[in-house]
Specification:
alpha/beta, 8 strands, globular
Length: 290
């Protein structure tokens, strides 16, 4: 279940995305590529937070994965044009940050507008609807002759995490009969500040390498749940990595205030964590095992 923290944060204005907007396998998609003289070492598909493929923060993240890891990075519109509107960020900022008398008096107004903004997103982007889009897109990449020879990683943030966890399962409840078989769609997965997960049940089914980045002040997923997830992965002998960031709340890897030095350093460290994780998991992957 999404909560107000899933719709809070800061939109970046300190940089501009350098990738391309294309139509890929039927979906609008932001694509970030390695520099021209570098071949792609693999593919990363980002399943983003509630603000979707058009949020500048998510596009800049795709650029960093491409630059640091020499990956071909796809950020598709899995929400079919129905992402949470960006103005919700401003409304919730007014609710949580303005402590003046005027701010207190106008909280009901801003709260009502925020709920009006994010409620349709929750209904229109239910797991039953979007999981099929995610799995179908990854399956299409695996069938495409231009990308079929490359290992595929998926990175999920907040709303997106519930989808990438299911891509780590052998047999999910939805999206059966994919080609290639579902359990061969991806090589590895990464998620940061996940939401809408049931711990430990969702992690019990994981059979692919999984890296989890969490904040110890994230009330959407507790540290106790993060530890339970880690214990399950260890018990089931699944390749994994868990990193906990001190003082980090929900959305900390994508929607933080870049003027805050510590938050910026944690977000950048999380970028490097994801890149190193996928680099490690992709290394030595035989083409005939893809």
């Amino acid at each position: 279940m999404s909560c107000p923290a899933c719709f809070q944060g800061v939109e970046r204005t300190d940089a501009k995305p350098t990738g391309r907007q294309l139509k890929i396998h039927g979906l609008d998609c932001y694509v970030a590529s390695p520099s021209e003289d570098q071949p792609a070492k693999g593919i990363i598909v980002i399943v983003p937070d509630a603000f979707g493929w058009e949020l500048v923060n998510n596009r800049l993240l795709a650029d960093e994965y491409a630059r640091q890891g020499n990956f071909e990075v796809f950020l598709p519109d899995f929400m079919d044009g129905r992402a949470c509107p960006l103005w919700v960020l401003d409304e919730l900022d007014s609710v949580t940050q303005d402590h003046s008398l005027t701010g207190w008096l106008t909280k009901p107004y801003h709260t009502a507008w925020a709920v009006f903004g994010f409620s349709p997103f929750i209904w229109r982007n239910r797991l039953a609807i979007c999981m099929l889009r995610v799995a179908s897109f990854v399956a299409a990449l695996r069938r495409d002759s231009s990308t079929a020879s490359l290992p595929v990683g998926v990175a999920g943030f907040c709303w997106g995490a519930q989808h990438i966890v299911r891509l780590c399962w052998n047999e999910p409840e939805a999206c059966q009969n994919t080609e290639p078989p579902f359990n061969k769609l991806i090589t590895a997965a990464f998620m940061a500040h996940p939401s809408a997960l049931t711990i430990p049940a969702d992690v019990e089914k994981v059979c692919k390498p999984l890296c989890i980045a969490a904040g110890d002040k994230d009330h959407v997923i507790s540290i106790a749940d993060v530890k339970r997830a880690q214990e399950v992965l260890e018990k089931n002998d699944i390749k994994h990595k868990v990193e906990v960031y001190e003082g980090a709340g929900h959305g900390w890897s994508v929607r933080i205030d870049r003027q805050n030095k510590r938050q910026k350093e944690q977000a950048e460290d999380c970028e490097r964590l994801a890149v190193s994780w996928f680099t490690e998991c992709f290394a030595g992957v035989a083409k005939d095992s893809l």
